[in-house]
Amino acid sequence: MMPAPPASYTCLRTSLPLEVDGNLDKPAWNGAPRSERFVDLVTGKRAWLETRVAALWDDEYFYLAFWVEEPDVQAHLRERDSFLWLENDVEVFIAGPDCYYELQVNALGTIYEVFYIWQEALKPGGFFDRPEFNLYRRQVDVLGGFQDASRFRRHPRGRRWAFMDWDFPGLKWAVRVDGTLNDSSDVDRGWTVELAFPWKGMEILAQGRPLPPVDGDVWRMSFSRFEVLEAGGRRLEPSAGWALNAHGVYDSHIPECFSRVIFSRKEIKI
Fold first, then answer.
1. How far, in Å, are 20, 32, 53, 127, 268 from residue 24 at the CA level?
2. Tell me: the pLDDT tens digits for 178-224?
3. Is 163 left (phi over 0), alpha (psi -120 to 50) or beta?
4. Which of 117, 131, 153, 173 has the most CB atoms within 10 Å of its CB?
């Protein structure tokens, strides 16, 4: 199934630095445009639990906020870089020309990070020839990726090196739960996530693009959510996957399908 074209989101500027505490009832977030409701990653059908994202920027940071409807907020993985996709999470992918970064967050505030580089782009003397991407000294995996036979089959760029021990420099994040975490005896409203990515930490992803971006610059990013479902006492596989726009296949790792974030110098109205 071929998905609709990637969604576009215009990221406005804020003159107010944000305290990252997970509380999205701030003037800045109240003034930021929220995205459309997330849709099924494969079919594009409207997700039955509401999830939306918003973005802002200033001279120091790129900010993100997620609103996650969840009647029973559950999160159990506490160790950093645990496999959060095994339970409920929200995910952010930020793409550069020859690489991309993945961040996952659960309702406990646990995070998981990986930095991916297409294998053909990691060459001696090249842009990524730096200590943090030393294949012999870092914790590295390989991602092949799979696509629907009607689309890419295998991604045309081939495999990616996955640097499992890479951490985004200066990343700030916070989570708030509107309800009672890990208590199924009541009904929760959901949870929120607030993130701040320093532009200084984006240098590798930018690969020479201006930081912060200039008016009209477009970056590829993916915003998604994965939800564990159970029926008849059994967990359904795979988990529900929702994103700002469909990929047409159950695979988050397709930069060509990432949404378009358009940076604007227009300031939000407070």
1. 9, 11, 11, 37, 15
2. 999 999 999 999 999 999 999 999 999 999 999 999 999 999 999 99
3. beta
4. 117
Is 5 buried (19+), middle (13-18) or exposed (0-12) by CB count in 10 A? exposed
pLDDT tens column, 138-159: 999 999 855 443 444 678 888 9
Q: Which residues pair with 102 in a beta bridge?
A: 93, 114
DSSP code at position 41: T
Kindly report the CA angle at 261 between 24 and 65, in degrees rounded to 5? 15
Query: Contact, 170 vs 155, CB < 8 A?
Result: no
Token representation of residue 80: 């950093």
- Determine the 3-state secondary structure of 109 from DSSP: coil
d(CA 71, CA 85): 19
Residue 35 and residue 223 in contact, taking contact as beta carbons nearer than 8 Å: yes
What residues pair up with 243 in beta bridges, in sequence order?
39, 224
On whether the pTM is more than 0.85, the answer is yes
Which CATH architecture group holds 8-110+166-267? Answer: Sandwich (2.60)
